[in-house]
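Workshop exercise sheet. Pairs work together: one partner reads the sequence aloud, the other fills in the structure field after running the prediction. Swap roles for the next sheet.
Pair: D.N. / O.F.
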Amino acid sequence: MDIKILIATHKESNIPNLDCYLPVQVGAEINGNITNYQKDNTLYNISELNPYFSELTALYWGWKNLSCDYLGLVHYRRYFGKENVKYREDVDLNNLVISSYDIKGYLDNKTVLVPKKRNYYIESLYSHYANTFDGKHLDITKSVIKKLTPEYIDSFDKVMRQKKGHMFNMYIAPKHISDNYCEWLFPILFELQNNIDTSNMTAFEARLFGRISELLFNVWIEKNGIITQELPLLDAFKVNWLKKGGAFLMAKFFKKKYKKSF
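Structure field:
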């Protein structure tokens, strides 16, 4: 069983040294100074779109260039973790993240492993995006979906009303299912690029296509009745939940947009 879990990273990092993980330098076409990671600008790629698509340039590379049984995507700062385990700097990361041995019992030809849903409680997925970024992006996304794959509109509307969703563009799936997702997702994002002007956006704002794809992942799951298995999310860094929660409330009640990651 050949499992490839891509670790999207833009810099050298403390990453797991396990056989199923493949670190991929994203945006290598722009800044290819890391020598010991796979680069996302080889063979078929969209590496130059990394400032807009974020970790999705690694996913695109894996979709187009890898032949494996299962394909996954995580981040250098976020992984699928073992049950009831939290990140600590004094613990070897290899002992915290899932291995191929840990997930073999979940893997079959139809199940997609996903992070546990993030609950926004007082926000729908649409209103949270609208309050923190710009709701017009999602309105345009709906128009693009209506044009390219109109059969997904009902699922799009349903997901936008939900308060929970699988976030971070993280999953592990049978390669053929991952391929089906990518075949649907990327044409939508490319068309979206043609309809949203990013020329006056900050670098943080311009990564909107990567953010929208987090929501679209849930739309695709909903429409296709994908069988999912939730795994714990492991933040491989210290999260300032007070600061993060404060920014969430400021966006909700005072319409203060996010200006940076937390």
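Discussion prompt: The longest helix spans residues 175-193. What would you look at next?
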